[in-house]
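[audit] Reproducing an earlier prediction to check determinism. Same input, same settings, fresh worker. If the tokens differ from the archived copy the diff job will pick it up downstream; this log only records the rerun itself.
[audit] input (166 residues):
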Amino acid sequence: MDKVSLETLKSAVSEKAAVITGVTPSKDAPLPEPKIDAQGRSYATGKRKDAVARVWIKPGKGKIKVNNREDTVYFARPVLRMLINQPFVTANRQEQYDVICTVSGGGLSGQAGAVRHGISKALTLYEPALRTILKKEGFLTRDARVVERKKYGHKKARRSFQFSKR
């Protein structure tokens, strides 16, 4: 893509987002420019527990690929797939964007939360007008809860060894 068509794509996306969401940029604080790379994608990193997800979104038919596998294969539980699709449902953008992501670390639940966080951040970079909607639902806030470390003199993080009187 050349520079001219990329700029027209960015302006068209911001105008479309303003029309669909009904949020028009005010004169005081204009919306930031969409961050779209040369392939027409937006990138963001999502995190949850020990999981880190690198997410790219682009306009498409709604396909989600996680680590080169379909989301139905990688996240077999319906609850995890629902968690991933929440940003699209909230923003009313079902089946409008293709998602490609690589995720590592943690378990499946943490990975699904990391992908959701990454999708939300990438959506706001692609369509800045969606930020208020996704922020209100709490999808842009990184869930900072992590596993507590084990302390010395304890069996686990807080569990002590069994007391013996004799």
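[audit] rerun output stored. Observation attached for the diff report: The mean pLDDT is 88.
[audit] end
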